């Protein structure tokens, strides 16, 4: 295909990356997925394997010691890890979520200080936006940051923070000017070791049980003034810009979960026999499989399309429809993941409902992709506003 008519399909190099990640995930991550879910424990085996193969934060630019992978390659990595274990896929996904604000708006000094340890696998980076009373209405947050000389002092509690307690670093949004609404919100880097930082108990969840979700509690947390990300009052703008890029990684996670469920269901229906023949011979089953695959491939193509736009935007190009395509792929892929995993459970019948088979876990894991980084109801509002503006 000529350069005048560029494709957004993965390159040969990216498909080689997919094969590499799939082989690693099948060997080092999938064998522990059921245990990680059953025990609700962090997938340390996955972290070790991803770090050993430099796949834990592939998006970090080479100048900061990272692999410098583009947004589509990052999507491929997350997708393939999620196919084996959704909880484990949140390692590369949340490392991107936590660091994109720094990449977009942080000072050069901040980038050098925090991106290197993430790239080397010495630290993970989480994102702290939501609060108990500020979820979809994130601008209604109450966490405060008050300037005190050459420092900022933070007080508040952030809710639903993925990998909280495991990550060393946190992008924290806090109100610096209560009179300015959303324009009075600023972003900061907070370290786990900062005095006054603590964590609530782990949430007891339906799915992604291997990824801890906890409150991040800030009590008179004093941090150096240079840990602000961008100019004062630009934090909410940075938060929204970040989500334009990272909703695509949630779509990738949803794709992987759905692909894992479809792959397992395909293998099962070829082996399961009823009425003297494999159930894959029955047209009703074939139609279910066809619909699962069609919807999944449609969501994948939109997600890859959005990833290419994300990459162009990260390099400074003005992408007018980035918000639209990132919201659209996130909503579509997560809805598809819920449908596909539910159908996979149905195809396995009674076996699908038991923990002896992975599709019930995949169905539980898929649900969160419709909720976090903006519920799919919010995504539809965002999409409609983009259409109507």
From TrEMBL:
Q: In this protein, which residues make up the domain named Acyl-CoA dehydrogenase/oxidase C-terminal?
A: 233-388
InterPro entries per record: Acyl-CoA_DH_CS, Acyl-CoA_Oxase/DH_mid-dom, Acyl-CoA_Oxase/DH_mid-dom_sf, AcylCo_DH-like_C, AcylCo_DH/oxidase_C, AcylCoA_DH/ox_N, AcylCoA_DH/ox_N_sf, AcylCoA_DH/oxidase_NM_dom_sf
Domain named Acyl-CoA oxidase/dehydrogenase middle is located at 127-221
Q: In what residue span(s) does the Acyl-CoA dehydrogenase/oxidase N-terminal domain sit? A: 11-122
Q: Keywords assigned by UniProt?
A: FAD, Flavoprotein, Oxidoreductase
The record's Pfam families line, in alphabetical order, gives:
Acyl-CoA_dh_1, Acyl-CoA_dh_M, Acyl-CoA_dh_N
Q: Which cofactor does it need?
A: FAD
Among PROSITE patterns, the record links this protein to: ACYL_COA_DH_1, ACYL_COA_DH_2
Family, per entry:
Belongs to the acyl-CoA dehydrogenase family.
Q: What is this protein called?
A: Acyl-CoA dehydrogenase family protein
Q: Which organism is it from?
A: Actinomadura violacea
């Amino acid at each position: 295909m000529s350069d005048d008519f560029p494709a957004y399909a993965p390159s040969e190099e990216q498909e080689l990356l997919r094969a590499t990640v799939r082989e690693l995930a099948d060997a080092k991550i999938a064998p522990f997925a059921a245990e990680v879910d059953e025990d609700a424990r962090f997938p340390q085996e996955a972290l070790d394997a991803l770090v050993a193969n430099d796949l834990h934060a592939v998006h970090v630019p080479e100048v900061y010691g990272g692999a410098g992978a583009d947004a589509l390659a990052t999507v491929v990595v997350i997708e393939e890890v999620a196919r084996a274990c959704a909880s484990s896929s949140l390692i590369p996904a949340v490392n991107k979520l936590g660091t994109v604000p720094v990449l977009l708006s942080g000072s050069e000094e901040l980038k050098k200080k925090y991106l290197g340890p993430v790239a080397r696998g010495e630290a993970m980076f989480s994102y702290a936006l939501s609060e108990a009373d500020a979820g979809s209405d994130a601008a209604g947050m109450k966490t405060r940051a008050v300037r005190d000389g050459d420092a900022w002092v933070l007080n508040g509690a952030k809710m639903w923070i993925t990998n909280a307690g495991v990550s060393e670093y946190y992008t924290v949004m806090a109100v610096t000017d209560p009179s300015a609404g959303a324009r009075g919100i600023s972003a900061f880097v907070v370290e786990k070791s900062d005095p006054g930082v603590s964590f609530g108990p782990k949430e007891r969840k339906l799915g992604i049980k291997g990824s801890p979700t906890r409150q991040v509690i800030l009590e008179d947390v004093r941090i150096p003034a240079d840990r602000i990300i961008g100019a004062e009052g630009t934090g909410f703008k940075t938060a929204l810009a970040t989500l334009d890029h990272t909703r695509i990684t949630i779509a990738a996670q949803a794709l992987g979960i759905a692909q894992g469920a479809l792959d397992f269901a395909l293998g099962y229906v070829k082996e399961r026999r009823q009425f003297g023949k494999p159930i894959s011979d029955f047209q009703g089953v074939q139609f279910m499989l066809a619909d699962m695959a069609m919807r999944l491939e449609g969501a994948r193509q939109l997600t890859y399309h959005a990833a290419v736009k994300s990459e162009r935007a990260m390099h400074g190009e003005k992408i007018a429809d980035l918000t639209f395509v990132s919201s659209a792929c996130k909503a579509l892929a997560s809805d598809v993941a819920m449908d596909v995993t539910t159908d996979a459970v149905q195809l396995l019948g009674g076996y699908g409902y038991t923990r002896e088979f992975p599709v019930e876990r995949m169905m539980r894991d898929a649900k969160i992709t419709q909720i976090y980084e903006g519920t799919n109801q919010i995504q539809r509002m965002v999409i409609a506003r983009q259409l109507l503006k």
